[in-house]
């Protein structure tokens, strides 16, 4: 059975390339600025945010839960946690119920690091991403992202 590829039209192609370029440039800029201001990488920050989310009251997640939240491969989570553990931002704690499992706990130093970095990072996100957008553009972006995320969740 032969299938025909439905190529992107010109408008879709431009939108897709703009999205790819936006993601790459924004991530690179946020990472550079965050590291310069706080010494945290964007990956450090993402883990610290996950551990300080409101639905994580004890500031501790299983390694696999952290990976699921961030959509990272197991090896990436492990390597990043090891780097952060060496700097005292998190601690790895073995799970008594599952000998192969581990928890990642936020340390006081990790909490202090994200508390210090967050205001500047949020200001930069606002400046680079939201400034100049109308309320309707922000709402449209939210609807767009939600629609795509719902489709991705339904397909997994």
UniProtKB/TrEMBL annotation:
Pfam families according to UniProt: MarR_2
Q: Which domain of life is it from?
A: Bacteria
Q: Where is the HTH marR-type domain?
A: 1-150
Q: Which organism is it from?
A: Nocardioides simplex (Arthrobacter simplex)
What molecular function terms (GO) are annotated for this protein?
DNA-binding transcription factor activity
Q: Which GO terms describe its biological process?
A: response to stress
Know the name of this protein?
MarR family transcriptional regulator
């Amino acid at each position: 059975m032969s299938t025909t590829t439905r190529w992107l039209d010109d408008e879709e192609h431009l939108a897709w390339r703009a999205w790819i370029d936006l993601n790459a440039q924004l991530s690179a800029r946020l990472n550079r600025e965050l590291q310069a201001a706080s010494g945290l990488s964007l990956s450090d920050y993402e883990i610290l945010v996950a551990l300080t989310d409101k639905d994580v009251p004890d500031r501790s997640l299983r390694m696999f839960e952290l990976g699921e939240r961030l959509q990272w491969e197991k090896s990436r989570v492990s390597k990043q946690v090891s780097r952060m553990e060496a700097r005292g931002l998190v601690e790895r704690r073995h799970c008594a119920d599952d000998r192969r499992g581990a928890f990642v706990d936020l340390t006081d130093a990790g909490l202090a690091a994200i508390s210090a970095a967050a205001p500047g990072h949020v200001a930069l996100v606002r400046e680079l991403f939201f400034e100049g957008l109308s309320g309707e553009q922000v709402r449209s972006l939210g609807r767009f992202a939600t629609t795509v995320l719902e489709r991705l969740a339904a397909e997994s």
